[in-house]
Amino acid sequence: MTSTTIQLAAAPRKPWQISLWGAQLVLAAMYVPSGIMKLTKPVAELAKQMAWTGDLPQLVRIAGAADLAAGLGLVLPALTRIAPRLTVWAAIGATVLQVLAMALHASRQEFGMLPINATMIALQMFVAWGRIKKAPIAPRP
Fold this sequence. Notes:
single chain; 141 residues; mainly alpha; 8 helices
């Protein structure tokens, strides 16, 4: 196999890498600040922005920890190439988190949140699929 053949075979991965990294960074930019906010702000203050936090204060810190873990998990394993398969698992776990969030919002008739949840699910499933099939990241040697 010549170097030209190798370059042609590798070329299709670049758009996938760019798209996947873009999705991962967008998701992390949504999850990390949300997680930090839910972990650090008083519940009474959060309730002014998100009504569910006032009604379910016992879930706030758990949701914050899950958001922070999702945001970091979607980026750090792939970025460091230390156990990059964890990025796929983070995307799957974040999808479960968003399905649960959709159920919560629907039960509270907060239907305006559902398109955001659905968009995040789509991005997360794209990341999981892409990091398995189209542009996996090899672990460090």
